[in-house]
Specification:
Distance between the termini: 35 Å
Number of helices: 2
Order of helices and strands: HH
Helix content: 55-70%
Number of domains: 1
Shape: flat
Radius of gyration: 13 Å
């Protein structure tokens, strides 16, 4: 998978989320929670791509400590 394909997959996932959020109004666009869920969705796309390519490694977000 090249960068363009990954970017397209991320845009698709975020579009699906945006359409759902437009209907439900769960997250206020531009809020901190909205930005966080967008990041979680991007990470999920990366996880799926890694699994599909059998090239699994930690994402930057998995290396964050809460101390």
């Amino acid at each position: 998978m090249n960068k363009g394909e990954m970017d397209k997959a991320i845009r698709r996932a975020l579009t699906i989320f945006d359409e759902w959020n437009d209907v439900t109004g769960v997250f206020e666009v531009g809020s901190g929670y909205w930005a966080e869920i967008m990041g979680v969705i991007e990470d999920a796309v990366h996880c799926g791509a890694q699994q599909a390519l059998n090239d699994i490694h930690k994402l930057d977000s998995e290396n964050v400590t809460t101390e």
